[in-house]
Amino acid sequence: MTLSKIINEIAYPLEDKDFREECKRILAESGALVLPKFLQPEAIKAIIQEGNAKASLAWYTQSTHNVYLTPIDPAFDTEHARNKQVTSSKGCITDDQIDKESPLRLLYDSTVFREFLASVLDEDKLYNYADSLSSINLHYASEGQELGWHFDNSSFAITLLIQKPEAGGVFEYLEDMRNADAGEMNYDGVSDVLSGKIKVKELAIEPGALVMFRGRNAIHRVTPTRGNVTRMLAVLAYNSQPGIALSEAASKTFYGRVG
């Protein structure tokens, strides 16, 4: 399958300098960039078929964590924003389980696509993960599964919505909710989000959309899936430096094994 069979090259001229600059501007201003109908219908269908065929291979996890994805700090009480626990649950198949001819693999490895991402993200170059599990993941969220409020440790995330559930599975966020580099955690603001006192934003995402998101300082979650249709989301993970692999402990937590 060629790149033109995978993505809508007419709507999204990835090599065009002006298009790249506009994408970069939107991402810088809002912390999120959504490109609707980025994937061609044929590619979406192929990925859904692969996802359904390999659903039995998925590693399912359910965990509780704080929004900062850090251990509990005894200096704060359990209901403090620093320690308050939320729930995340999902299934996942890993890079080594994705077909060699999968549209996800061909897109991930595409030089044109990778150079487009690097340009928009203002990175010199993007690299695969050094381990065999982390570069491409396909996530499954069935009835009741969700991604709790959190901040990302990485500076950017790249995802493709493959299949939308009947209800729920909504991506909610608020940008600039902390300054991680300055060590400003904004406990009061986070507490207000967790208690529902602040109106949060939603990303309107339909199947086939490419989403680039800066989640290091933007608090975000995915609401519980409702209905019989599983939410499928592809995560395309790159690094700005070569040779980076997920730690053994993290790999066992996320994937149930080490790559």
Automatic annotation (TrEMBL):
Alphabetic keyword roster: Iron, Metal-binding, Oxidoreductase
Q: Which GO terms describe its molecular function?
A: metal ion binding; oxidoreductase activity
Q: Which Gene3D superfamilies match?
A: q2cbj1_9rhob like domain
Q: Which residues form the Fe2OG dioxygenase domain?
A: 129-240
What parts of the sequence cross the membrane?
none
What family is it from?
Belongs to the iron/ascorbate-dependent oxidoreductase family.
Name of the featured protein: 2OG-Fe(II) oxygenase superfamily
Which source organism?
Answer: Marinomonas fungiae
